[in-house]
Fold this protein.
Amino acid sequence: MDNFKPVSDSATVIAELMIPSYSNFGGKIHGGHILSLMDKTAYVCAVKHAGAYCVTASIETVDFLAPAEVGELVTLYASVNYVGKSSIVVGIRVMAENFKTQVVKHTNTSYFTMVAMDEDHKPTPVPGLLLTNHNEVRRFYEALHKKELKKYYRNEEVRIKSEVEQKEMMEVIKNERCLVQLAE
Ligand SMILES: CC(C)(COP(=O)(O)OP(=O)(O)OC[C@H]1O[C@@H](n2cnc3c(N)ncnc32)[C@H](O)[C@@H]1OP(=O)(O)O)[C@@H](O)C(=O)NCCC(=O)NCCS
């Protein structure tokens, strides 16, 4: 059990008040600011688990479900969902609380893959994950499943680039909103 750490050991909560300088022309908080907060939170969570410096390797699609507004408190809840050899998948849920209306809304959720690095800036092994409830088992399983799907799609991309002929591409895109005007 020495080399396994429970999810609770690295669970991280970071909160920040949204001030006017974070807003865009529409008065809402910049998506980029929220992404930056998510990256910082993922870093803290991953480093707590790894006990080593970590880098962000990839970020799963981030859908913005609702905007955060100036004056709201944005709170990010992060926990380790999965670990490989040197990689750590951190799940992050972002909530925004409006003190005036007392409404708390879910603004986004995403998954960051972080990789632990040694002193020579090479990936280094991380402790395993001790799963202590059914939700943690489900999240671990889902992350593993997504990792396999990503591998499948990456192979498909390679196949498309190397195998799909121009004629086949034309056939597939012919009813899409594009106009093909080849110069030669
Ligand atoms: C991420 C990085 C360390 C991977 O290095 P690498 O030489 O490809 O290392 P490996 O192939 O041995 O992969 C190491 C681990 O990272 C994972 N990994 C690498 N690229 C990944 C990606 N794009 N998405 C998810 N996981 C990835 C591998 O699956 C492997 O996981 P495992 O050890 O749990 O099996 C390297 O690409 C890098 O340093 N990228 C730049 C990171 C950065 O600058 N981030 C922004 C600022 S922090």
The chain has a mean pLDDT of 96. Strands lie at 4-6, 12-17, 54-59, 73-83, 87-97, 104-116, 128-130.
